[in-house]
Design a protein that fits this description.
Layout: E1 11-14, H1 22-25, E2 31-36, H2 40-43, H3 46-53, E3 58-62, H4 71-83, E4 88-93, H5 95-108, H6 116-120, E5 131-135, E6 147-152, E7 157-162, E8 170-173, H7 183-201, H8 209-231, H9 236-249, H10 263-275, H11 279-293, H12 295-310, H13 317-334, H14 351-361, H15 375-384
Parallel strand pairs: 1-8, 2-3, 2-4, 4-5, 5-8
Antiparallel strand pairs: 6-7
Helix pairs in contact: 4-5, 7-8, 7-9, 7-11, 8-9, 8-12, 10-11, 11-12, 11-13, 11-15, 12-13, 14-15
The structure holds 5,6-dihydroxy-NADP and zinc ion.
C-alpha cells in the first residue's frame, strides 16, 4: 500500500429534515449569497425549506447557474459577491451549483489578475471564501471534496480546479430531495458515482485490501440500489443508500494509498465541452474503450472486479477481465445510457484528433495510473468509442 495523508474537513448532516438545521451551521453575522441552478428547487420545495431555515440571516440570491457551470454566469455572481460584501456562500443544487460555488469561493479571494487563470493554470486554492451546500442531486461527490469543473462556452473548454481550501464547511444530505429528480438525472448520478469508484479502483494491485473492499462495496451498493431508485425515486431507503454511495465514491477516502486513473474523466470532459453531452454519459462512452485499449495494464484488477463485484467465477484471468468490461457496459445500458459517441452526435468524425491535439497543446504527456496514456493513445481510445 502506498503512503498517504488524509484530511477531509467537511461536516455532513445526513437524513430527513436536516435542511432545517442550516441556521446552526452558518456563522451568526454572515452575509449569505445563496446560489442555485435553473429553478428546480422552486418547484420541489427545497427553496422554501432553505429560506425558512435562513429566516434570521441576511441572504441574497443568485439563480441560473446552468448544468456544466458556465464561467460567464459565474463572473456575474462574482460581481454580486464583491459589490455586496458577501461573507458566506451557500450552494443549493447538484454538482454544477456546488462546483460553481467552489469557483466563486476561490475567485472571491483571488489576488491574481484574471480568475480564469485559476482554471487555465490549475492554481490551487489554499483558503477560499467559506461555503456550505445543500445537495439536491447525488452524483458527483462535490459536496464532500475540494475539486470543481468549470465550463467556458466561448472557447468550448471544460477545466478542473481545486485545492485544500475548497472543501465545503458543511453539506446537508437529505435523501428526500431525490424524489423530484428526473429519471435521466438519476441514471447520470448512478453512472457518474460508479465511474468515480472505477477511476480509483480499476488500476493495478498494490495490496490495498481495505481500499479495494471499500470500492467493491460502493459498486455493489450502487448496482443493488439502481433498479429500485430508477423505478421509484421516492423509495427513501434506496435514495439514502444511493446518496451516501455517491458521496463516499469521491470524498477522497477510497483513493488513499492506491493509484488512481482519471483518464476516462479527462477524455469525457472534452466530449462535454465539444458536444454538451451530460458528464456521466461521456464516461459511459469512454470507459469501455479505455479499459479495452489498456487491457494488459488493467486486467488483474478487471478480473478481480468481475469476480468480486459481478460474481464471474468461470474462465481464465483474461476471460474474467473481459467479462468485467462487458458487465460495465451492460450496467450503463441498464440505466438507459448509450455507450457509443455516434449514438449522441452525427458529427463525431475528427473528434479523436481534436481531443488528442488539445491534450498535446496543454502539455499533457501521459494520463492514467501509470501516466502512460499518451495523446496518441487518447486518439485511438476516443476513436474506439465512436
Ligand atoms: O438547474 P436545476 O433547475 O436545479 O436542475 C438540475 C439540472 O438541470 C437538475 N436537478 C438537480 N437537483 C434536482 C434536479 N431536478 C429535480 N429535482 C432535484 N432535486 O438536474 C440537472 C443536472 O444538475 P447538475 O448539477 O448539472 O448535475 P450533476 O450533479 O451531475 O453535476 C454535473 C457537473 O459536476 C461535474 C461535472 O463535470 C458537471 O459539470 N463534476 C464534478 C465533480 C467534482 N466536483 O468532484 C466530479 C465529477 O466527476 C464531475 O466532473
Ligand atoms: Zn464524474
Amino acid at each position: 500500500m502506498n503512503n498517504f495523508d488524509f484530511q477531509n474537513p467537511t461536516k455532513i448532516l445526513f437524513g430527513k429534515g436536516q435542511i432545517a438545521t442550516l441556521s446552526k451551521e452558518i456563522p451568526e453575522n454572515a452575509k449569505v449569497l445563496m446560489l442555485y441552478g435553473g429553478g428546480s428547487i422552486k418547484t420541489n420545495g427545497i427553496y422554501n425549506q432553505v429560506k425558512t431555515a435562513l429566516a434570521n440571516f441576511k441572504v441574497l440570491e443568485f439563480g441560473g447557474i446552468p448544468a456544466n457551470p458556465e464561467y460567464a454566469v459565474l463572473m456575474d455572481a462574482l460581481k454580486v459577491i464583491k459589490s455586496e460584501n458577501i461573507t458566506f456562500l451557500l450552494a443549493v443544487g447538484g454538482g454544477s451549483v456546488i462546483d460553481g460555488t467552489k469557483f466563486l469561493s476561490a475567485a472571491a479571494v483571488y489576488k491574481g489578475e484574471d480568475p480564469w487563470n485559476i482554471l487555465k493554470n490549475s492554481e490551487r486554492t489554499m483558503k477560499g471564501m467559506p461555503f456550505g451546500s445543500v445537495l439536491t442531486l447525488p452524483a458527483t461527490g462535490s459536496e464532500m471534496n475540494s475539486s470543481a469543473v468549470i465550463t467556458r462556452r466561448e472557447t468550448k473548454e471544460k477545466l478542473a480546479m481545486g485545492g485544500p481550501g475548497l472543501f465545503p464547511v458543511f453539506s446537508i444530505l437529505d435523501p428526500e430531495v431525490v424524489q423530484s429528480i428526473p429519471e435521466k438525472q438519476i441514471a447520470n448520478g448512478l453512472a457518474d458515482a460508479f465511474t468515480h469508484v472505477m477511476e480509483q479502483y480499476l488500476t493495478y494491485p498494490v495490496g490495498g485490501m481495505l481500499q479495494d473492499r471499500f470500492s467493491e462495496s460502493i459498486l455493489q451498493t450502487l448496482i443493488e440500489v439502481a433498479p429500485k431508485i430508477m423505478k421509484n425515486p421516492a423509495d427513501y431507503n434506496a435514495a439514502a443508500n444511493f446518496m451516501w454511495s455517491c458521496t463516499m465514491a469521491l470524498n477522497g477516502l477510497i483513493q488513499k494509498g492506491v493509484p488512481s486513473d482519471w483518464a476516462t474523466h479527462m477524455m469525457g470532459h472534452e466530449l462535454t465541452a465539444l458536444f454538451g453531452i451530460d458528464h456521466a454519459r461521456t464516461l459511459a462512452i469512454i470507459a469501455p474503450s479505455h479499459y479495452t485499449y489498456n487491457f494488459e495494464n488493467k486486467k488483474e484488477k478487471l478480473a478481480q472486479y468481475a469476480e468480486r463485484v459481478w460474481g464471474v467465477t468461470e474462465g481464465t484471468l483474461d476471460e474474467k477481465a473481459k467479462a468485467g468490461i462487458e458487465k460495465t457496459k451492460a450496467f450503463y445500458n441498464s440505466l438507459g445510457i448509450k455507450t457509443s459517441l455516434s449514438e449522441y452526435t452525427k458529427d463525431y468524425e475528427g473528434t479523436a484528433e481534436i481531443i488528442s491535439k488539445r491534450f498535446t497543446d496543454r502539455g499533457w504527456k501521459g494520463l492514467g495510473e501509470r501516466q502512460d496514456v499518451t495523446p496518441s493513445d487518447v486518439e485511438k481510445i476516443v476513436m474506439m468509442a465512436y
